Amino acid sequence: MRPKGTYTLRFGILMVALCGCLLLNISLGSVSISFTDTLKAIFGAEIQNKSLTYIIWNYRIPKAFTAIMSGAGLALSGLLMQTLFRNPLAGPFVLGISSGASLGAAILIMGLSLFSGILSASMVTDVSLALASSMGSFLVLFLVIGVATKIKDTMALLIIGLMFGSITAAVVSVLSYFTNAEKLQQYVYWTFGSLGDLSWNQLGILGIAILVGIGISIFSIKPLNGYLLGEHYAQSLGIHLKKSRFLIIIATGILAGSITAFAGPIAFIGLAVPHLTRQIFNTTDHKILVPAVLMYGSITLLLCDIVAQLPGQAEVLPINAITSLIGAPVVIWLLMRKRKMIF
To answer: What does pTM read for this prediction?
Structure first.
């Protein structure tokens, strides 16, 4: 484990990269806006075309902030799960929390079509979709917490979480089978993920949820370091296993659930970013890893969003597909180059 001072340069580089990616993300899009006009609009200077200022402040900046918060939150929830289960394949989806959010969205979108005579399809709005997804993710979270009070084995909890994910996926499949083509297309579109549909008010709610999740994670840094040494050793350090496990699960649920509710399911970030971060920082100390994955996750999702929005084109690619298409080969290359996974 390196002294903390040796990481200052790396954090400085990440901060510069984050600021650079943020400006690049805001300046690129379907409408061509010069980098100079982008900077003027951000810092309140007057530009000739007023509509460009409106586009930047009401579409591009909220989307960039959504990418920063979603990337940071998903990467942190992945780190929490990999440490808790001491499993490099764990991620925010292993406890079925994201599947629960998908179930909530599926019930709202496709379940309504089964009661078309009673409930109107107009109830499916961005707000109701976010609420339904949140309720689904927290329902699964409460079920997992309830099971966690009965089970001491962390690996058994991991398997039960995967089973919850399978159950919710099965219910979504049944709904998909009975729904009509229009509703099925609407649900599939939601599963693509989107960073560009949030208003400033929704962004504020998402920001509060992310801050709460980060706060609980920072409070859990000592238990996280203890879990890497094994539960028995962590217990000998005075760590309360049951309490710390609840806190880690709740933090993951808040982070992954709120992001999936507002931005849809986004793959790869939670699984891969912790591994990429460990390759750069070469440490297992969570005092270093937690801020590092927050920054690295934000940078990664900003870059993926730049590719997804196809600068200069009217079309936008699904962010959920881009994160996997770009990220997976990078992880494979890094692991083959290093020939060793740091965990």
So the answer is: 0.85
